[in-house]
Amino acid sequence: MVQAAKAPIEAGSLVLTYMDRTGRIAVDQLADGFGMSKTQLAETAGLARETLYRVERSRAQRTQGRLREMLEIISRVSDWAGGKEQAMAWYRAQPLPAFGGRTAEALVKDGKAAAVRDYLDHMAVGGFA
Whose CB among 30, 100, 101, 110 lies 3.0–4.6 Å from 18's, allowing a Cys bridge? Predict the structure, then answer.
């Protein structure tokens, strides 16, 4: 399987906020930061519940990638959404017309985070939904 290159992390990104010294997303801090249990966080990211309770699985590349994608999207909308909590609510509940009314959460769970990022980039430069 060919791995896509990771995009550089923008300054002020939520990814940096929740990254530990090893460069991994710190699951406990992330869950606490959004007032969620690890079970709720796993569900939001489209991961199995046990994944975030087992250290070796929470550090796996797939898990870390999914959490990073979720945080990148939430970070991109947090300014205009009114903060990270509102951005999380948008991520979980706002239907996106360009994707048949699916939410960013549903799209990330289906492996379409890049499409959501492209959509947000398009909207940021004045594009239409």
Answer: 30
